[in-house]
Amino acid sequence: MPAQRRIEGRIFLDKNERVSIKINISKAGDEIESLEAKISELQRKKASKLIELSFRDYVLAPIRRITPEILSEIFCLFCHFKVYNDYTSDWFFPEIRHLNKSIGILMAAGIAWKNVVDATPALWWDLTVGFFVIVERMFCVKEG
Description:
Layout: H1 15-60, H2 68-79, H3 94-108, H4 111-118, H5 121-139
Helix pairs in contact: 3-4, 3-5
């Protein structure tokens, strides 16, 4: 469509010309609304396809093929690795802080990993025993 020339002077239109222009304006508005509806529908379809693609990628991910038992072993190695970084240096019991942080990281990865962490008693046992060690140290409780 060629560019319209700028109208500089006064315009005198008869009734038929005004009606014709109003009809053209109305048609252009309707066409814009139709295009916006199509754009909106295409954006919804795109979002749906992106979710579908993400789900399929998730299902096909190699990590999903590892059995929960092996994941449990990997998680135990990760959580019990004895490296205490800066975030644990100011704590009285850095091993408990490290274990807590590690478990939190694993549980935040996704529902499948959260379920494996929940079903791995070896992770929670150390946290529970560690808690009792802390209480024992705090109150200097000694048996026999």
